[in-house]
Specification:
about 280 residues, 8 helices, globular, TIM Barrel, single chain, two-stranded antiparallel ribbon
Length: about 280
């Protein structure tokens, strides 16, 4: 199987390389919280030896309710992310929702994220591709794994092959997501790195009156299942007080659980990647 390698700053991402973490906050809530969480992630990942890309959204433009918290917006949000990048010397990933955001965001972010709900929006895809930045493509909840070929082809046609695929669960009836573990091997056939957004895959969309519910208590079990498929890395969000987080708290890992959680994930990743693939065809 081909294993394409995507380089992000000094980090190499591929399905046959050691685990990489894309982690941070769901949304930028405040400057102080952003810096504190970024420092915690960096220190923890450095201690246990996991390459790390910091994630946070400057705008959550697809919330359920008009009253949902969206974030500080483009200008202030990019200022906070730039401060994280310069102060802690870590690469940044953030999502965009409109084509005209791509150029400005790519000046700060090392990785642009294509949101799952928008992953078939051709104009957005082309604008992101043209920046030359690495791209994290969230698999839409309504797409089958093999359908990601069309999105990859759009990026490649626009001149960008710095691509990562991200599993985040599929719709299963109302207010529920499931993760098809066989989907990882299907997406790995494209050769590009595959990562697993374990916290968003724990969502119960629309499960609360005005927002998504979640199953934080099952984060470890689901992450282990995903890593068992021999993938490039994990995507996860953590918060010092998930019960009072301004967005997706029911899915977020507790920040004080990050180190023991990642220690288990790193051990499992090493075990899986030390095993040869067995052809059962």
């Amino acid at each position: 199987m081909t294993h394409k390698q995507i380089d992000i700053a000094n980090i190499s991402v591929a399905n046959n390389l050691p685990l990489v973490l894309f982690g941070g906050l769901n949304v930028l809530e405040s400057r102080d919280l952003t810096l504190s969480v970024a420092e915690n992630f960096k220190t923890t990942c450095a201690e246990i030896g996991i390459p790390f890309v910091f994630k946070a959204s400057f705008d959550k433009a697809n919330r359920s309710s008009i009253n949902s918290f969206r974030g500080p917006g483009l200008e202030e949000g990019l200022n906070w992310l730039a401060e994280v990048k310069s102060q802690f010397n870590i690469p940044i990933i953030t999502d965009i929702h409109e084509p005209d955001q791509a150029a400005a965001v790519s000046e700060i972010a090392d990785v642009l994220q294509l949101p799952a709900f928008l992953s078939r929006q051709t104009d957005l895809v082309v604008s992101m591709a043209k920046t030359g930045a690495a791209i994290n493509i969230k698999k839409a909840q309504f797409l089958a794994p093999q359908e990601m070929a069309h999105i990859l082809n759009k990026f490649e046609s626009a001149g960008n092959q710095r691509l990562i695929l991200c599993e985040r669960g599929s719709n299963f009836g109302y207010n529920n997501l499931v993760v098809d573990m066989l989907g990882f091997s299907i997406m790995k056939q494209f050769g590009y790195p595959v990562i697993f957004d374990v916290t968003h895959a724990l969502q119960k969309p629309g499960g609360l009156a005005n927002s998504a519910d979640g199953r934080r208590q099952q984060a470890t079990a689901l992450a282990k299942a995903g890593l068992s498929q021999g993938i490039a890395g994990l995507f996860l969000e953590a918060h010092p007080d998930p019960d009072n987080a301004l967005c997706d708290g029911p899915c977020a890992l507790r920040l004080d659980q990050l180190k023991p959680f990642l220690q288990q994930m790193l051990e499992l990743d090493r075990l899986i990647k030390d095993q040869p693939d067995i052809d059962t065809a």
